[in-house]
């Protein structure tokens, strides 16, 4: 006769529980791979759909393959990626031409025409500013990950050091020394956030990389740089 004080043997998981656990584990493994492949496939298809209509019919990839293999016209061949290659080559050629004197002159002339068009001017200037911010490769990356006390003392938040504040910002806001531009991201979308200007002594720089800090923000604190000891950065 068992009493409430007798040690109980651990109950063996049911078949349904084991199947559910295996399914969830498989889903964790498959979902990132499937979503990555689906996203790449969709983007490639979208670029092909935008680029290939501009290619003459006689030079369409599927038509050329059909003629090369001697296939019937009724056989449909879906060739993905050709439009991406054409887009990359075309973009490289345009970028190479834009670096020259003639290319810069043409760009200035085209922009001057756009500036005279009321509605187009606003759309073009906004898209150009976003493109320059996203794709520019000079001094656009964050320097360090850091901790700051926000929104009040005693509450710590992860931020990214953009650069040292300069000009009027430093002259008017600081009487003690250097100030840093800090980008404070939001969770789980780190592309939005706040721009803060803080004294350098109030910013605690972290040893973890910017990528690891971004993972920590995106995961809402679930993914640490070092899973064995979250307080210690992972050693390479």
List the helices and strands and how they pair.
Elements: H1 15-51, H2 61-69, H3 82-98, H4 101-115, H5 118-135, E1 144-149, E2 156-164, H6 168-173, E3 179-185, E4 193-199, E5 204-205, H7 210-218
Antiparallel strand pairs: 1-2, 1-5, 2-3, 3-4
Helix pairs in contact: 1-3
Describe the fold and architecture.
The structure is a single chain. A five-stranded antiparallel sheet has the order 4-3-2-1-5. β3 and β4 form a beta hairpin. The mean pLDDT is 79. It has 236 residues and is of the alpha+beta class. The chain has a domain of 75 residues. It has seven helices and five strands; from the N terminus they run αααααββαβββα.
Beta strand %: 5-15%
Spans where pLDDT lies below 50 across 5 or more residues: none
Oligomer: single chain
Q: Which structural class do you get from the secondary structure elements?
A: alpha+beta
* Tally of helical segments: 7
Largest sheet, in brief, is: 5 strands, antiparallel
Shape: flat
H/E element sequence: HHHHHEEHEEEH
Mean pLDDT: 79
Q: Biggest sheet, strands in spatial order? A: 4-3-2-1-5
User: What separation lies between the terminal Cα atoms?
Assistant: 58 Å
* Strand tally: 5
Give the helix level as a range of percent. 40-55%
Rg for CA atoms: 28 Å
């Amino acid at each position: 006769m068992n009493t409430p004080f007798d040690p109980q043997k651990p109950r063996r998981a049911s078949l349904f529980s084991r199947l559910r656990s295996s399914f969830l584990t498989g889903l964790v493994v498959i979902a990132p791979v499937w979503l990555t492949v689906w996203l790449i496939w969709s983007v490639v298809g979208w670029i092909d759909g935008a680029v290939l209509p501009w290619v003459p019919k006689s030079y369409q990839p599927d038509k050329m393959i059909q003629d090369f293999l001697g296939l019937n016209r009724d056989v449909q061949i879906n060739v993905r990626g050709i439009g991406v290659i054409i887009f990359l080559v075309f973009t490289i050629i345009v970028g190479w031409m834009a670096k020259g004197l003639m290319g810069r002159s043409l760009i200035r002339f085209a922009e001057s025409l756009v500036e005279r068009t009321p509605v187009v001017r606003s759309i073009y200037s906004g898209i150009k500013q976003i493109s320059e911010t996203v794709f520019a490769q000079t001094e656009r990356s964050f320097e360090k990950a850091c901790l700051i006390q926000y929104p009040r003392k005693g509450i710590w938040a992860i931020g990214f050091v953009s650069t040292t504040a300069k000009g009027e910002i430093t002259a008017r806001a600081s009487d003690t020394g250097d100030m840093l531009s800090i980008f404070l991201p939001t969770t789980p979308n780190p592309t939005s956030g706040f721009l803060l200007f803080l004294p350098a002594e109030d910013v605690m720089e972290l040893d973890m990389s910017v990528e690891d800090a971004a993972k920590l923000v995106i995961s809402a604190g679930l993914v640490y740089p070092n899973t064995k000891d979250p307080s210690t950065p992972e050693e390479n």
